[in-house]
Amino acid sequence: MSGSALLAMRHFGEAIAAPLFGWIADRLGARRVFVAAAFLTTSGFVFVAVGVTVLGALVMLIFRGALASLGPAVITQGLAVDDDAIGPLARMQAWRDFGAALGPLVTGVLLTLLAAELLHAGVAAALIASLIYWLVSTRR
Fold first, then answer.
1. Taking the model in full, what pTM does it have?
2. Percentage of the chain surpassing pLDDT 90?
3. Which of 41, 65, 70, 128 has a CA between 20 and 30 Å from the CA of residue 18?
């Protein structure tokens, strides 16, 4: 029952996160809020990895909604005025769809080999590495 409640929270989190984080991003900047949401999503994975499962799942579900809603804004704001936004937005969506399709399949296989906590720790490490790489590469 708690798993079902967390899945329901995903939709609630996205419904709340999009307008709330959009409003915050209007005031603080989409990139800044996106980075904070990515860090907080990663911290949710860390919470699950260290055994604080329910809090970690809630944090992940709420802040992933912010990532989903702010991603397109961050991409378009990073483009030059005369750049076409369709290509970068299509690439973002294609990779998002690829991850949404492949993620559960890989997770199902890996959970037969690794503990859930270890798997969440690995995802947190990958997210931190990705976030650092993105921040460094976009500063140039």
1. 0.85
2. 58
3. 128
